[in-house]
Amino acid sequence: MIENEFKIMLTEEQYEKVLAMFEWDSTAMQVNHYYDTRELLLSGEHITVRVREKGGRCFLQIKLPNGADYSRVELEQELAGVPDALSAEVLNALAGGYAPFELPAAERLGALSTNRSVKRVQGAEIDLDRSDYFGKTDHELEIEFTDEEAARGIMERICCEAGIDRRGDVCTGKIHRFLEEYRANGGVK
Q: Which domains, ranges and CATH numbers included, belong to the chain?
């Protein structure tokens, strides 16, 4: 599956404004368990490996670069639980021919918990996230889309109505924010 999304970071006040803008289709808790080598080889190559817990189920997910900053190949398979480590064989079997090299075994680095509100609209899905990891909380707006023009219009509307100034805004993904805190905490799980 190809994942196309725009994302921006929000202050808590902006998060509350966006939360009040919609009647959300669903709200759920999900936990992302991130995996990498001790040297962080995978994230250094813009590859995300995680096991996502949601609704009592666990899914191994691998995200790989797909050309544009907002586009990634996302591969997934269900697992019976959250392992402490993932073998190279398991990762390469899922990655198939999409990985730019043979993926190494990876160990669990820690978890990031997200309370996600979802609103589906024509051509896009609006995801409003409050995430907690290593004692830190942040807020993010993601718009996943099949129609880029519709997604850009939705983002502009939300930013205008919530008073969000996007000039100079660069949003790093959850994995990058997680890894920054992971390093700041001395790599403590």
A: 2-184 (2.40.320.10)
